[in-house]
Amino acid sequence: MSRCGGLKVACGALDQRGVEGLLREASKGLAELVPADLFRHVLVDVLDGLLSSPWLLTLFAFVTVSAALRTVRGLMHRGRGHDQRRTFSKSQRSELFARAGHRCEQYSWLFGRCRESERLHADHVHPHSRGGATVVENGQVLCQRHNKRKSAGVPWNWQLDRLARRRKGYFPPGAVTTVARYGSASTGVAA
Ligand SMILES: [Zn+2]
């Protein structure tokens, strides 16, 4: 009796050569999907997309350059010794929270100052891991969300200047608004 039994038509279509052909086609298809090839296709698609939209290309260049700069700045500050104390003391935290009005100090150009006033954290403006001192002058108040989102990036001087300027709007009179990364003396005070 035939191997195919009653399915003569289907079996006839899938004779030895037919099956071999199918296998050959399938393996050719798989060969086209090897990771290296797939990666190349995706890369070409992405580059095509970037080159066809100038604003996207600009954004991509900006993000890439920013990331490179952050890495370089991080490496430059890595050699500096760490403050032996990593966490702010209770009295430092009280001072940080009081001068910030018990509210997160994170600011965005679009939404202004964050309104969160609960689950606040005392945070190093210049990261402790990059040599930032655990002193009130290098502290700021961040909510849980913004504290989590903040990486160990070293802030630029212009960012510190902007923070100091904003602080003049909410720090109590006489409080020092400038950041001292390494705990040195500060000059700016709130009016
Ligand atoms: Zn916040």
Would you mind describing this structure in some detail?
By secondary structure, the protein is mainly alpha-helical. It contains 7 helices and 4 strands. Strand 1 (107-108) and strand 2 form a beta hairpin. Residues 1-11 have low confidence and may be disordered. Bound molecules: zinc ion. Zinc ion (ZN) binds next to strand 4 and helix 6.
Q: What are the SSEs and their pairings?
A:
Layout lengths: L7 H6 L2 H17 L2 H18 L1 H23 L13 H10 L7 E2 L3 E2 L6 E5 L14 E5 H6 L7 H11 L24
Antiparallel strand pairs: 1-2, 3-4
Helix pairs in contact: 3-4
This protein binds zinc ion.
Broad CATH class of one domain: Mainly Alpha
Q: What average pLDDT do the residues reach?
A: 82
Name given to the CATH architecture of one domain: Orthogonal Bundle
Distance between the termini: 103 Å
Strand-pairing-aware structural class: mainly alpha
User: What low-confidence regions span 5 or more consecutive residues with pLDDT below 50?
Assistant: 1-11
Q: For the largest beta sheet, what order do the strands appear in spatially?
A: 1-2
Question: Into which percentage range does the β-strand content fall?
Answer: 5-15%
Shape: elongated
DSSP summary, beta strand count: 4
Helix content: 40-55%
Question: Which cofactor or ligand species appear?
Answer: zinc ion
SSE string: HHHHHEEEEHH
Give me the CATH fold name of one domain: DNA Binding (I), subunit A
Largest sheet: 2 strands, antiparallel
What is the CA-based Rg, rounded? 30 Å
